[in-house]
Design goal:
By secondary structure, the protein is of the alpha/beta class. It is built from 10 helices and 7 strands. It has a 7-stranded mixed β-sheet, sandwiched between helices. The longest helix is centred in the N-terminal third of the chain and has 21 residues. It starts with a helix and ends in a 7-residue tail after the last helix.
């Protein structure tokens, strides 16, 4: 039995090593504690992510530094929905990995965050590679036992994560929880400062806070223009007016809204759009 177990572990480690060597983008599969390579990874062209130039530059430089083997900050991308937080992470990675083959991206579902220490124990052994662990849309709706466990897991892991791993997390909230939770804590806690500090200390573990805010109409229309140019759609006054009307109907101006409008044009005009 001992020999069979050793052979099994050797074979499993060999398969993992080959996967990492020949692929760049993965999803963590919690049910069998393994990574699954994604072959058809096609993120949005980085040049089409418009209106967030400062955010783009910060994340790009951080990722380049990480791929070069330097000590690098974990990053928390927070702010308004639909303005390209997760798209930027994937697109920056895709741009850089074309020349930095040692860089790998592993997407971890927020519901499987308890696996993070196990992931560290595995990937920390492959020091020739640099791993970005990407957790999308992480937030907490209430303070309960799950929050405390997750906070303990992530908070402690951030302090002891291997040097070849960095965390990129997106969230709609700067402190990963609703504002009213913090306000309620301030109004009801006996030791207010200490209690509030406990609630927001997790987000403080991220050296980079990259904020995404609501787009101006100018930025929104510039995104529409860029999409039209890229997909050979004639941008004119009619498209401009309809784009504004489209955003008003949805009650927001975001990159996601702009993309949905482009898909609507493509559908109505029978245009073939390839990402």
């Amino acid at each position: 039995k001992a020999i069979k177990l050793r052979n099994y572990m050797f074979f499993k480690n060999y398969l993992l090593k080959e996967q990492i060597k020949h692929n760049s983008y993965f999803i963590w599969k919690s049910e069998n504690k393994s990574i699954k390579a994604i072959k058809n990874f096609k993120p949005l062209n980085l040049d089409l992510i418009i209106g967030v130039d400062n955010q783009k530059n910060i994340l790009f430089k951080n990722t380049i530094n990480f791929s070069n083997g330097n000590f690098t900050n974990n990053a928390l991308l927070w702010g308004a929905r639909g303005n390209g937080k997760s798209s930027l992470i994937k697109s920056v990675f895709h741009k850089i990995v074309s020349t930095k083959k040692n860089l790998k991206l592993i997407q971890l579902n927020k519901n499987n965050i308890f696996d993070i220490e196990y992931i560290y124990s595995i990937l920390g052994n492959y020091i020739q590679y640099r791993f970005i662990i990407f957790i999308d849309d992480l937030s907490f709706e209430k303070i309960d036992s799950d929050y405390k466990i997750i906070k303990s897991t992530l908070d402690g892991s951030i302090q002891h994560q291997p040097t070849n791993i960095v965390l990129y997390v997106s969230s709609n909230r700067r402190h990963l929880m609703p504002r009213d939770m913090i306000d309620n804590e301030r109004s009801s806690a006996i030791h207010t400062d200490e209690s509030v500090e406990e609630k927001i200390s997790l987000s403080d573990r991220f050296g980079l806070w990259i904020g995404f805010h609501k787009l101006s109409q100018v930025d929104y229309l510039n995104i529409i223009k860029a999409y039209c140019h890229h997909y050979k759609i004639n941008y004119d006054e009619e498209i401009r007016k309809k784009a504004i009307q489209w955003s008003l109907q949805r009650g927001n101006r975001t990159g996601r809204t702009a993309w949905q409008y482009i898909l609507n044009i493509a559908s109505s005009e029978n245009l073939k759009i390839k990402i």
